Amino acid sequence: MSRETLVPQAAQTVVGLQQRAATQASVSAQRLVQPGNLVETSATANHFNMVPGHYGDYVNTKPAQLAGAPGTTFGAGAYKSTVQATTIQHTGAATVHSGADGQWLNSKFTSVTVHAGAKATYTNCRFSGTLDNSAGKLTDVVCIGCRFDVQPTNVTVIG
């Protein structure tokens, strides 16, 4: 059995507009971010789904959730607030500042310095350089299932 839909000639424009509006709504709902467009505008909840590309140096000043894809890179990173990040690669040094609270999953780092009073949890991450928490407590930085090219300093390593 076949189905036939009869549409007035002027309806094609309306259908096209509806399809474009639905596509735009879908893209907006996904919160896709192009390289160079990472702007923290909300005081409490910034959420970014980043397409692959290089985003330059990142300074985290407000709570943020960063969802990268393979090929998503930052230069240097300065984390000063709450952050949850997945699949991010830092090509430069990252610093977790005092008062920051971060969680990273499946990310890559060249080197990380953690200041006293900061908390950081890394799960399945890769460190090609140093992970230095010499200023803080041993329990402030926890690494679960991570790989290290250089032995970390003052870090709790699980797995």
Helical element count?
A: 1
Number of self-contained structural domains? 1
The largest beta-sheet arranges its strands as 1-2-5-8-11-14-17-19
User: Main β-sheet: number of strands, strand sense, barrel status?
Assistant: 8 strands, parallel
Helix content: 10-25%
Please provide a brief summary of the model.
The protein is mainly beta and 159 residues long.
Explain how this protein is built.
- The chain is mainly β.
- It has one domain (33-158).
- The protein is 13% helix and 38% strand.
- It contains one helix and 19 strands.
- The chain has one helix spanning 11-30; strands spanning 32-33, 46-50, 53-54, 58-60, 64-67, 72-74, 77-79, 82-86, 89-90, 94-96, 101-105, 108-109, 112-114, 119-123, 126-127, 131-132, 141-144, 147-148, 156-158.
- The strands form four sheets. The protein has an eight-stranded parallel β-sheet. It has a five-stranded parallel β-sheet with strand order 4-7-10-13-16, with no helix packed on it. The protein has a three-stranded parallel β-sheet with strand order 3-6-9, with no helix packed on it.
- The longest helix is centred in the N-terminal third of the chain and has 20 residues, at 11-30.
